[in-house]
TrEMBL record:
Positions of the HTH hxlR-type domain: 22-119
Source species: Halobiforma nitratireducens JCM 10879
PANTHER family registered for this protein in UniProt: TRANSCRIPTIONAL REGULATOR, MARR FAMILY, TRANSCRIPTIONAL REGULATORY PROTEIN
GO MF assignments: DNA binding
Annotated segments matching region Disordered: 1-21
Full protein name: HxlR family transcriptional regulator
Keyword Repeat: no
Amino acid sequence: MSRTESQSHSNEEGDEDEPNACPVIESLEQIGSQWRLAVLHELLAGEQRFNELKRSTGANARTLSRVLDDLGEMGFVERRMEEDAPIATYYSLTAKGESLEPVFDEIECWASSWLEEEHLERTENGN
């Protein structure tokens, strides 16, 4: 199979390693789950303990643990353990994670403009 045929074949299969993949889609694959977004957004306020994140996000312990591990492996979140009694684990954003703050600001701005308008339209229409 030639290189061109191979590229065409892999495109048809939705190959994730496509060098020309859309950067928006690639970004959303890293941060786009409900729980990842919730954790990243909460950590913009600063370092938090596991149970604080659990309360603020509403995630169960297993989900939160998995999400924090994923975000750590991708370089968005770092973990700090305090060995003094009681032992505590703290999570904070790395520089990569902090760089998402303007993205969240824009999403919040968009939401306040468009989602409030949609809510008002539904209210006016009795829905």
